[in-house]
Amino acid sequence: MSDNEQLLYLNLDYLGPRNSSGAPFAKDVEPSQCSDDERVYLTDLVFIEDGISSTIKKTDLINFAKRAKTAEVIRDIQQYQTVPYPLKPVGDLQDYILSNMQAAGDVHEMYDKSLAVEPREREDEKITR
User: Fold this and answer.
1) Is the pTM of this model over 0.70?
2) CA angle (98, 86, 32) in 5-degree steps
3) How many helices (H) and strands (E) are present in the chain, helices listed first?
4) CB 98 within 8 A of CB 90
């Protein structure tokens, strides 16, 4: 299905009825068309659109909280749409990292050495956070 066809399908589906849990919306999207993560995002967008008023009550002011929630979901979707880096494995580098990890020793031993080099803050030295 092309992007335009998917968009049309989703827009048509959006116009259709659904219950308060959004079940018909999620049910109508075929598993081959959409991953589980995408279903969650689409359901979130439907709940935001249906559940939050576009204007602030008793005024004609735009509800920017709704717009911010929508933008947040879209931002999450876009992070997965970025083109992956074409990284290739480098055998020598992998061997170097693995050998150093094995030579590092026990995690508990390394933690004790870390505390010896840089002890924890004393109560009187702690900065109020």
Assistant:
1) no
2) 105
3) 6, 0
4) no
For residue range 35-56, what is the model confidence (pLDDT) as tens digits?
A: 667 778 888 898 899 888 889 9
Maximum C-alpha span of the chain:
68
Higher pLDDT, 12 or 44: 44
Q: What does the radius of gyration of the chain's CA atoms come to, in whole angstroms?
A: 25
Whole-number Å distance between alpha carbons of 51 and 47: 5
Separation between Cα atoms, residue 66 and residue 72, nearest integer Å: 10
Average pLDDT over residues 77-81: 81
Give dist(CA 45, CA 29) in Å, integer: 14
Contact residues for 46 (Cβ-Cβ < 8 A; gap 6+): 14, 18, 22, 25
> What is the pLDDT, as a whole number, of residue 122?
75
Contact assessment for residue 45 and residue 25, using Cβ atoms and an 8 Å cutoff: no
Range list of β-strands (E), the chain: none
